[in-house]
Write a structure and sequence with these properties.
two-stranded antiparallel ribbon; about 15% strand; alpha+beta; Transferase(Phosphotransferase), domain 1; about 300 residues
Length: about 300
């Protein structure tokens, strides 16, 4: 097919040879299948801010660091240059997260290059060599659901240990790939996490805990359709509490249970509040009847 204008510069730079077809068009990007020598890869073209339905919510962009002080000041002022720099920072967020997570052993597409707002990365495939389906397009047996859920909980932990929270993890941005996995003798199906432009720094974002809990709950609710017992699990709070305590590692054994702390109740204080409320109500009633309440001694 004819190369879109945004991919033409990659052809001219020799980064890709040809465009095969469009793979998908999502809320923040379009993805194309491309040829690079003997390899088939995908090119993700980020949409401009005014063409995206996904907004750069403050929850996601909070505390994202910009090394250039001039850029940081311009972004704070909201100038035209600042908006351009903010757009560049938004686009590079996924690139940075992919390299960071790939180095940590998280199952994400391998990134290869980022040029002129286009991310060149691995094409994740199924058993037939076609583009891998998203989880929401696949039905699972209870055994498969339990296995994939356990794998993805492990990936969430690995991401968190690398300092990253996905922030938008669900069945819509996880692919079911097929291939050889370390420790497995034969090729098998396994989940690959995609779409990371909204990833946040676990230590530097005040909303990281809430986002992680939502990510984990999304996994629980999806796989719980196929293995109902998963709906009773509570991995999110368990993972976060271990992380906060400095006790979380890739090898940490999780239980899926979490006992929430129950603060001791001061019954005397509660009773005093009740007595005060009763006294106030009695005084109000007397005032309504035109009778002055007796002074409290």
């Amino acid at each position: 097919m004819k190369a879109p204008p945004r991919l033409q510069s990659l052809i001219e730079e020799g980064l890709i040879d040809s465009v095969v077809r469009q793979l998908m068009s999502g809320k923040e990007a379009m993805v194309f299948v491309v040829r690079c020598g003997d390899d088939t890869r995908c090119a993700k073209i980020y949409k401009e801010a005014n063409n995206r339905s996904f907004r750069q919510a403050v929850d996601y962009t909070e505390n994202r660091k910009v090394k250039n002080s001039r850029s940081a000041r311009a972004m704070a002022k909201g100038s035209k240059f600042g908006r351009q720099e903010q757009e560049a920072a938004w686009q590079s967020a996924e690139v940075d997260a992919l390299y960071r997570l790939a180095a940590a052993g998280v199952r994400v597409p391998q990134p290869y290059n980022f040029h002129d707002g286009v991310l060149l990365m691995e094409l994740v495939t199924d058993a037939h060599g076609d583009a891998a389906p998203r989880l929401n397009d696949v039905a699972f047996t209870p055994e498969q659901a339990r296995a994939h859920h356990a794998t993805l909980i492990g990936e969430v932990v690995r991401m968190l240990c690398a300092g990253v929270v996905h922030g938008d993890l669900s069945e819509f941005n996880i692919l079911l790939a097929h291939g050889n996995v370390e420790g497995e003798a034969n090729a098998t199906d396994f989940p690959v996490i995609i779409d990371l432009p909204q990833a946040v720094d676990a230590a530097g974002n005040n909303h990281a805990q809430r986002m992680l809990l939502r990510d984990v709950n999304n996994l629980r609710d999806f796989f719980g359709q196929f293995a109902p017992e998963l709906r009773a699990t509570d991995y999110g709070p368990e993972i976060w509490s271990l992380y906060q305590a400095g006790l979380l590692s890739n090898e940490t054994a999780l239980t899926g249970r979490f006992e929430r702390a129950r603060a001791d109740v001061d019954m005397q204080a509660v009773l005093r509040e009740i007595d005060d409320a009763r006294a106030e109500d009695a005084a109000r009633r007397l005032r309504m009847q035109g009778v002055a309440p007796l002074p409290v001694r």
